[in-house]
Amino acid sequence: MRLSHTPTSSEELKPSLVPPFLAATLSLIIPGLGQILARTIRRGLLLLFSFATITGLLVWRFIETARRDTGLINIVKKGLSLEPALVILSILVIVFYIWNVVDAYAIANRSGSNPAGLLFLVIIIFFMLGWQIGQIDLVALITQADDAGPALTSVLWPWERSIEYPKDIVTTTAQIQIPCTETPPAPSGALEDAPYLLADPTCGTLTEFEGAPGSTVTLTGHNFIPNTRANIWWKDPIGNEFRQRQGGEYINITPDENGAFKIDIVLPYRLVPANIRDVTTIWEIQIRQVASIGDWQFSTELKLAIEKIIETIFIGMMATFFGILLALPVSFFAARNLMSASPITLGIYFITRTILNIIRSIEPLIWAIIFVVIVGLGPFAGIMALTIHSIAALGKLYSESIESIDPGPIEAIQATGANWLQVVVYAVIPQIIPPFVSFTIYRWDINIRMSTIIGFVGGGGIGFLLSQWIRLMDYKAAGIAVWFIAITVAILDFVSAEVRQRFV
User: Fold this and answer.
1) Phi, psi at residue 473, to the nearest 5°?
2) What is the DSSP letter of 207?
3) Burial category of 393 from C-beta neighbours within 10 Å (exposed 0-12, middle 13-18, buried 19 and up)
4) Phi first, then psi: what are they for 241, rounded to 5°?
5) CA–CA distance from 161 to each of 168, 309, 477, 479 (Å)?
6) What's the CA angle centered on 236, arms 180 and 175, to 5 degrees?
7) Is the whole model's pTM more than 0.90, yes or no?
8) For the chain, is the Cβ count within 10 Å smaller at the N or the C terminus?
9) Whether the predicted pLDDT of 137 surpasses 90
10) Whose CA is closest to 232, among 201, 208, 255, 205?
11) With contact defined as beta carbons under 8 Å apart, do 75 and 62 qualify?
C-alpha cells in the first residue's frame, strides 16, 4: 500500500502563480513576496512584517549604539565593536533572510516546507532584540546582588524604627571669626558646673575648593559627659547648620573619664553668598552631646504610616463606592442585548462602549497626575483618579454580565408589554446580582492596591510616604510602609473571600 500526503490547508492545494525560481528571486527582493505569489498569503505576510520589524529594530539599535558616528559603514563597525549581541543578531537576520528565499522556492515547487523552524527563528530573533533593548545583564544581577542586602534587610525587618527614645541634647558653642581681624573674639571663660568649649585661635580662613586647606583650630572641652560620643556642628552667618567633615568622614569626639577632650580640626569648605564673601563674619562651632534618653514611644514614621494606610483604605473604599454608583446605570447602556432594539439605542451603545474603552485604556496613574493638576496634591485627586477608572472597568464587566444572561426572562417580560425599565428591573437585575457582587469585590481589591501606588504621583495615601522614604534611602521607614501595605492587602483578601462566599 502506498501512502500519500494529503494537504491540510486550502492554500497548499492551489498551484503557485509563479515558478519556484521566480518566487525565490522575488523573496530575495522583498521577503515574503514569493510566498504570497505562491499562494501562501498568510505565511508571506507574516514573513514580510516580521522581517520589516526586525530590520527596523536592528537599524535602530545600531544607531543608538553608535549615536555619535555618521555614515552607514562607521555606524555598523562601531555598533558591532561595542555590542557583541548585535553581531549575533545580524547573523541571525541574514540566516532568516536566506531561509526566507529557500522557503519561497520550496513552497512554489510544492516540495514541502515546514514553517515551524522559520517561526522558531523569528521568535529567537525577537527574544534577542528584547534582551538587547531591555539591557538585561545577568552578570550584574548576580555580582551586585549583595549591594541590595542592607536595603532588603531593612525593608524585611524595620520594626526597630517603629519606636524611638526622646533625647535631651546639650549644645556647647564657641565663636570663630572669618577672616581674622585685629580684634578676634575672646574665648569663653571656664565654667564649674556646665560644659564649656575653648577654641584656639578664635579666627581663621575657610578651606578653598580644590585649593589650600583652611586654618587649623584646636578645640578644648571640659565638663562634658564622660565616655559619651559628641558631634561637631557648624552654624554659618546666615543660620545654616551642617556637620563637620574631615577626610570625608564626620568628626566625632568622645570625652575622657573626666569629661574633657582636645582635638585639632581644619576649618571646613563652605559656599559663601556673594554679599558676605568679603565681609568679616562670625561663625559658630558647636559640640552636641546626648545628655539623657527618655522612655520609649512610637516613632513618627510609625504614626505617619498608620495615618496614611487608613487614608489609603478610604481612598480605595470611596473610589469603589462612587465607581459602583456611576457604573451601574452606564453598564445598562453598554449592554448590546438591551440596546439593540432600535438604531438610536444601538448608537448609544456604541458611544458608551467607545467612551468606556478610552477611559479604561488610560492608567489610574495618568488620571492621578491629571487630577493632581486640577485639585492639587492629596487624597481627593487619588479618589477621582480611581473613580474614573473604576467606572470604565466596572461598566465593562457589568455590561458583559448583562449580555451573558438568559434571554428567556427578558422575552417573557417583553411579551407582557412591559417597557424598557420594567424589563431591566424584573428580568435583568435578578440575574446579574451574583456576578455584580463578585466584580465589585474584585474592583475594591484592585482600588486598595492601586491607592498605594497613585501616592507616588501625589494622589495621597501611604504611597506618597513610601516614595519620599525611598528617595531619601530611608529603607527602615520604607519597610514599615511596605509591611502595612502587605498586612492591609492580606486582611482585605480575607474579607473579600468571606463576602464572596456569602453572596456569590
Assistant:
1) 55, 30
2) B
3) buried
4) -115, 140
5) 19, 17, 7, 9
6) 50
7) no
8) N
9) no
10) 255
11) yes
Averaged pLDDT, 340-350: 86
Q: How confident is the model at residue 140 (pLDDT cuts 50, 70, 90)?
A: confident
Residue 79: which of 96, 98, 57 has the closest Cα? 57
How many angstroms separate the CA atoms of 174 and 202, rounded?
A: 8
Which whole number is the average pLDDT over 362-390?
A: 91
For residue 101, how many other CB atoms are within 10 A of its CB? 18
Under 8 Å between Cβ of 157 and 479: yes
Domains with residue ranges and CATH for the chain: 10-136 (no CATH), 167-293 (2.60.40), 300-503 (1.10.3720.10)
The whole-angstrom separation of Cα 120 and Cα 89 is: 14
Contact 308, 464 (CB under 8 A): yes
Q: Which three cell numbers stand for residue 440?
A: 465589585
Contact residues for 272 (Cβ-Cβ < 8 A; gap 6+)? 206, 236
Q: What is the pLDDT of residues 234-254, one digit of tens each?
A: 998 888 899 888 777 888 899
Q: Where are the beta strands (DSSP E) in 341-406?
A: none
What pLDDT digit, counting tens, does each position of 53-108 carry? 999 999 998 888 888 888 888 888 888 888 888 889 999 999 999 999 999 998 88
Q: Which sign, positive or negative, has the C-alpha torsion 479, 480, 483, 484?
A: negative
Q: Label each residue of 97-146 as H, E or C.
A: HHHHHHHHHHHHCCCCCCHHHHHHHHHHHHHHHHHHHCCCCHHHHHHCHH
